[in-house]
Amino acid sequence: MNFQQLNYFQESVERKSFQKVADNNFVSQRAVSISIAKLEEEIGFQLFVREKNRIHLTPVGQRFYNYVKDMINNLDTTIHLLQGEDKALYQSLNIGYHSPFEGLLVTQHIIQTKEQLDVQFSIHEQAIENLISDVKFGLIDIAYLIVYQNNPLKLDDKRFKLKTIYSDNILMGISKKNPIAQGKSFPLAAFKDYPILFYTPEDSTYIQEGFLRSIEIPFNQLQIRREQSFQHIQVLVATGQAIAHYCGGLIDLPLQNEISYLPIENRPSPYSVQLIYLKNSPKIDLIKKYLRTLRNKK
């Protein structure tokens, strides 16, 4: 039994003629008759009473027709639903980012994109190492990554594509009540005097390594620690209990008016925000449309 046999059967009932079914499907009347006969042989009962130039259902054929009609209608409905889900899948993007700095760009870009494209977004915050892994395995379509000029990403997989979308310098945040805040830069000698905080939502060493390479001071001479809450970092910095490093140009945080943001003395510390995605992603067309909306910024 196959779908064509069932389709011929349903049409034969509704058109009341094998010939009309044949004409509608561009086959011979004999082909339709043979198909119905094979179906009857397979199911073990007669579906039609055949008379000259006329067919009509047997009682059991009527019951079988009701079943087949419901089955085909359900199949059509299921196909349409799955086609809709498939279309929705390829009209959605999973976006990953690491910190509130890239998060600010993510927010701006998604708002901008939704003004131009009918796209749904799912947003995830993770450590940089996990973002790269999730892009590699197709769990995230595009990841926003902070990349330090002196600590570039080492991506061995040639399927990755990187695109720089923003760049500026790393700044140090310190309470405005601290005398250092009145200066034009953060002195290198002062790093040893304060706890230094860096943010990552999960275990990660990339941010710490990039920061240490920026200031070129040995780790064992510093009080450096990871925090999982940016709100807590802001409280500690604003109240003078610690300092922290920030991505210049992307600061839109609680208590920011209580904090001064200074460049590092004699240490230009460039960073960039890069997008990473797979060149062979099944959503590559949608990814390219997303990137075009960023270029077409209004």
Automatic annotation (TrEMBL):
What are the boundaries of the signal sequence?
Answer: none
Residue span, HTH lysR-type domain: 1-58
Cross-referenced CDD domains: PBP2_LTTR_substrate
What Pfam families would the database entry show? HTH_1, LysR_substrate
Keywords in alphabetical order: DNA-binding, Transcription, Transcription regulation
Q: Name one GO molecular function term.
A: DNA binding
- Gene Ontology CC entries for this record: protein-DNA complex
What PANTHER family does the record tag this protein with? HCA OPERON TRANSCRIPTIONAL ACTIVATOR HCAR, TRANSCRIPTIONAL DUAL REGULATOR HCAR-RELATED
Similarity comment? Belongs to the LysR transcriptional regulatory family.
Q: What is this protein called?
A: LysR family transcriptional regulator
